Amino acid sequence: MLANLLYGLLALALFAAIFAIAYRAYRQGGAKAAIAVKAPPGVQTSSFVRIGGIDQWISLRGEDAANPLLLLLHGGPGNAMSGLTYNVLRPLEAHFTVAQWDQRGAGKTYGRHGKAGAGEMTIDRMVQDGIEVAEWLRGALGKDKIILLGLSWGSILGTEMAARRPDLFSAYVGSGQVVDMKRGEEVGYAALTARLRARGDPKLIAALETIGPPPYPSRKALLAERRLLFKTASQTDRAMLRQMVPTLLFSPDLGLKDVWDTVASNFFSIERLYDALMAYDIRHLGTRFEVPMIYLQGKDDIQTPTALVEAYFTEIEAPRKALVLLGDGAAHMAIVTHVEGFLAALAREVGE
């Protein structure tokens, strides 16, 4: 009788596994069909490209190759976005050819090389990588200049790239813009404290006080603070977070190893770049830029506080500059949670 029970449980587990695999394949197929780009004149390619001495993953998608070319610099560090945004960013591809690059230590690039093969992990090295990516894209698509879109950590790389090589870019766009990490964490901590007190949640207030104010001594302490921040985020932000796991699992271009690498690379990259990130202050670049500087910032962003972006915006000089504050609960990931408003502002500011 025990043997029969064990065989029955084994058969049930096997059936569940087969069903899960088949269901995932079904969902991936549906997602792939839904986001398919018809060519020509569309663009839909992805491959490893030799950048900075290692193979790095670059994908290109857009409905018309004649549209402006936009290079999206993902956040993190290590948070490759192509496997998470294939559904929500589809509207951008009607107006732009969107290049997504899995940075050194992130996503499929991390999966290709692992920890040992990531090489030098510094802001300077990754800015150089980004410039090489931009040069490769110009040649691959025959474009003179590129629009840079930097998200969170990517806004560090993007601003540095625009400052070093303005000849490559027609505009820089920052969202979740990093200005001064040390000051930003202080402002964010105060805002989170006020948010928790307004909620009247003594348990979460005690948890935040246990973590203590910044500077945080380790990545672990920073992530603990971020978990509390996410618990008090807007409804749209929390909905996005709840969808992250199924979105990754059903991504049409990710195998199960890719899913694992996408998650693991977040922890790897933040560990390697933590000290450089926490010490970063964008003002070391000065206040004069040679390309248009555009900021699309969620009003409720306290992770990279909007108040600091507003103050920084008044300081800089550029051929053209614009600051668009996105409302209705838009915060750090406005490009995902408020894609329609984000796209409208992006098209208005940099569309050609």
Give structural notes:
It is built from 13 helices and 8 strands. Helix 3 (107-113) crosses helix 10, helix 4 (123-141) crosses helix 5 and helix 7 runs antiparallel to helix 8. The protein starts with a helix and ends with a helix. The protein has 2 domains: 43-180 and 233-350, Alpha/Beta hydrolase fold, catalytic domain (Rossmann fold, 3-Layer(aba) Sandwich); 186-224, no CATH class. It has 352 residues and is an alpha/beta fold. Strand 7 (293-298), helix 11 (306-315) and strand 8 form a beta-alpha-beta unit.
Structural class: alpha/beta
CATH topology of the largest domain: Rossmann fold
| Count of separate DSSP helical elements | 13
The domain tally reads 2
Describe the structure in brief.
Helix content is 52%, strand content 15%.
Describe the protein's topology.
Blueprint: H1 2-35, E1 43-51, E2 54-62, E3 69-73, H2 82-85, E4 97-102, H3 107-113, H4 123-141, E5 146-151, H5 153-164, E6 169-175, H6 181-199, H7 202-211, H8 219-231, H9 235-249, H10 256-278, E7 293-298, H11 306-315, E8 321-326, H12 334-337, H13 339-350
Parallel strand pairs: 3-4, 3-5, 5-6, 6-7, 7-8
Antiparallel strand pairs: 1-2, 2-4
Helix pairs in contact: 3-10, 4-5, 7-8
